[in-house]
Amino acid sequence: MDLAAAVANLRDLLAGRAVADLRRMPREPVRTRLPTGTLYRYRPPDGVPAVGRPVLLVPPLGPPDFAYDLRRGCSVVEHLLRTGRPVYLVDLGPISFADRRLGMEHWVDEVVPAAVRGTCADAGGSDGVHLVGWSLAGVFCLLAVAAAASDPGGTALPVRTVTAVASPVDIAAVPLVAPLRPLAAVAGGQALATVYRALGSLPAPLVRAAFQLTAVDRLVTRPLGLLSRLDDRDGLAQIEAVDHLMRHMHAYPGRLFGQVYHLMLRDNDLAGGTLTLAGRTIPLAAVAVPVLVVAGRNDVIAPLAAVQRVTALLTGAPEVRFETAPGGHLGVLTGRRARHSTWAHLDGFLAGR
Length: 353
Known about the structure:
The structure is a single chain. By secondary structure, this protein is of the alpha/beta class. The protein has a single domain, classed as Alpha/Beta hydrolase fold, catalytic domain (Rossmann fold, 3-Layer(aba) Sandwich), CATH 3.40.50.1820. The strands form 3 sheets. The chain has an 8-stranded mixed β-sheet with strand order 1-2-4-3-5-6-11-12, sandwiched between helices.
């Protein structure tokens, strides 16, 4: 251990000084109407020429939008900007009691399509975007593209590719929740439904607790982990940034949480290749653009098998690329090792498209 570095870092920690650079990459809102949230355009770095079609980042519900911009030096947004890509993000914002009746169809049919078209319009009439979704947002993105393509009276979305990172499709392959599925089937979900309907949402503290539960071993060993890497300022910065993100988790709308519980956890419908929303069935086979699927090797929320299942369901896509990367549910997206794994997979996938 570098004793001098450890002493300097310990001094900053004890003094309450930030170790992580949590400044967000500069951005401005795009003047377009969204049913929910705000569409943002990130400012390109000076001296970096724009290359290729815009990338639209879609965050899941629960984690805040800055999961894509965790900290300087470990930010998906910063990385994409430095490669010259025009970058946009739809910020869904915090969920209130007034949003309790919003379901998955709201994001699949309204929010994602509006953000895609708004990005194309703002990017000088671009003929398509590269859509990137992490966690449940990856499912939203795939369903949005499939819904538009399979609607006989609709128009396909101007999407060139879809990237889904840590997006579980086969819930039966998630060890954390698999034992609960038979109980949910027997109980019918009535007790849980009564709770989330009364509250109007799955409150932010419960969402945060659920995420923390998946990493309880790291919570227990956290003090030892901090001591063992006192001389690793970048490692300490990552811990601080993740803690900051966990303190800003959002609630889930009651209706959407109910749909996830009934359609995905209890019935595991999506593993069969379709999902019924708003009275019509959306087939994942309707996705007709190249898809990149990335799974975290240490992800207990979306383990490899739960994520990889979608590759067999996207039969209409001209290319489906499956990659794995080190890290858990957040780490696979924006952990320190994601710089040389997930981000490299994304760069290679987008190159030349």
